[in-house]
Specification:
Radius of gyration: 15 Å
Number of helices: 4
Largest sheet: 7 strands, antiparallel
CATH class: Alpha Beta
Helix content: 25-40%
Structural class: alpha+beta
Shape: globular
Number of domains: 1
Strand content: 15-25%
């Protein structure tokens, strides 16, 4: 079975953040990083060179494929600040209605700027997702 391409890397988090050209995006990234560290109690780890992950869990799919992934994380992409809410969004309808302006993928939350959302609601969303994963994969 093939190994996952995206893995934790040693160091690099500060260099990754410092390389973000837009000072507003860099500020937003740092604010989200602080929140994720407080929520998880984990230090940031660079995954695959472009994602900052916090904590980890071990998963096994019905197919037998298994691996490790971060509980929550973020990445500064060209068009958006991407937050990884690994539990997905289907159980969080009430929070999502209060969040503000965003787009989603399966477990990705795309934000143009933190000023577009309610940061307290975002924090609650990340907390609930992390707690769910910790309970499910304990």
């Amino acid at each position: 079975m093939a190994e996952p391409k995206t893995k934790p890397q040693k160091g690099g988090v500060s260099a990754y953040v410092n390389a973000i050209e837009d000072p507003d995006r860099r500020r937003d990234v740092r604010r989200v990083m602080k929140m994720m560290r407080e929520v998880t109690g984990a230090k940031p780890v660079l995954w695959g060179g472009s994602m900052i992950g916090y904590g980890s869990y071990h998963y096994t799919y019905a197919s037998g494929r298994e691996g490790d992934w971060f509980l929550t994380g973020l990445s500064s992409r060209k068009s958006a600040l991407t937050l990884y809410v690994m539990a997905g969004f289907s159980s969080y309808d009430t929070l999502m209605k209060k969040l503000g302006r965003f787009r989603t993928g399966k477990s990705c939350l795309y934000l143009r700027r933190l000023d577009d959302i309610d940061f307290d609601v975002l924090t609650l969303l990340v907390e609930r997702s992390v707690r769910y994963l910790q309970k499910k994969y304990a």
